[in-house]
Fold this protein.
Amino acid sequence: MEIPKKKVAFPIFGNYNLCIKYFVEQALGAEYILQPPMTKQTMEIGARYSPDSVCTPFKSSLGSMIDALEAGADTLIMTFGICRLGYYGELQGEILKSLGYEFDFINLSDYSTGKAKDYLKALHRINPKVPAARLARVSAESIRMLTCLDEIEGEYYKNCGFELQHGSYKKAWRRFLLSMETAENLHDIETAYRTAKREFASIPINKPSNPLRVGIVGEYFTAVDEFSNHNLEQKLTDMGVEVHRFMSVTNRNLRYHGKNLSAGIKEYCTYEMGPTSTANIWGAKYYASHGFDGMIHVKSAGCTPEIDIMPILQNINADYKIPVLYLTYDSQTSDTGLETRLEAFYDMIQMRKQEIV
C-alpha cells in the first residue's frame, strides 16, 4: 500500500518559500502547499491568537500557518533562531492545536544541535527513505535558486524606478518568480535566471549618473518580507530611488559571516549583539562610507537586538553625516503614515543632495 505524500508548508518569508517548495518536492518527494500571499486578514487572524507582547513576525507567521492549514497542509515546518524566534515554534504549535487543527509539527528548534544527523531526523519525518545523495544534490540546487532570487531581486530594486515604460520590470520580475515556482531541476533554475537577466538588460531606462541611493538595514524578517514592511522598497523605487538592501539569506547566511563582518566595524562594535546586529552595523557603515544619500532602519515592534543597535547607527550618522530614517512596524501600522514619512525623508535627502552637488 502506497503511503500518501505529506502536504508540507512553511510560513511565508519573502520569496524564499519557492526554494523551500523546490527542496520539499524535489528532494523529499512530498507535496508543498504554497499558501496565498499574506493579507491584512492574515495579520488580523495571527494577532487575534497571539500574546499581545510578542514581536510582529510571530503574529504574521502564525496567521500564515493558519492560511496553510486551511489550504490543505498536514505538516508544518517552523525555523529556529537565536533571539525570541527560537521560542516561536513551541508556542505557535500549541496555539494551533488549541484551535483544533490536526497536523504534524516539525519545529527545527528541536533539532538545532549543529549536527547534520539531527537535521536529517527532521527531514526523515517527511520522508524516511530519501536517499542521501538526492538530499545533497537538491540542497545545492535549492541554494542556487536562493542566490538567483536574491540577485535578481536586488537588480530589480536598483533599476525599476527608472524604467521608461511603467511596469516593464515588474512584469519581467513576476515571470521570473513564476518560472522559479514551477522549476523542477537545475536546468529550469538556470534558464529562469538567464532569461530574467536578459529581460532586465533589454528594458529601456532613464537613470541619472548619480541617482538618489538609499540603503536598507534592519531586522531580518521585516527587512526582507514585503508584506511586513508594507512594500517599502517598491514605494521608494516609485519615487525614483535606487534601493539597496544588505539583509538577505545570501548575504547573512552564505556570503558574510561574523568574523569578516566584525573586522570592519571594530570602532563601533566589539561583541556580537544579536542575530543580525553585526550584519546591520556592517551594512550601515558600508552605505555611509560609500556615499549613499540616506539609510532606513526597519524593525518590528519590540525587537530587542535592533533596538540595541540604534545608538550605534546614530554614531555612524554623526561620523558620516548620513540621514537615517527609523521605521518600526506592528500589526497596526498603516500605509498612510508610512508614505507620509517616506515622502518627507525623500524630500530631505533630495534637497541635501542638491546642496552637496
Remarks:
- DSSP finds 15 helices and eight strands in the chain.
- The radius of gyration is 21 Å.
- The mean pLDDT is 93.
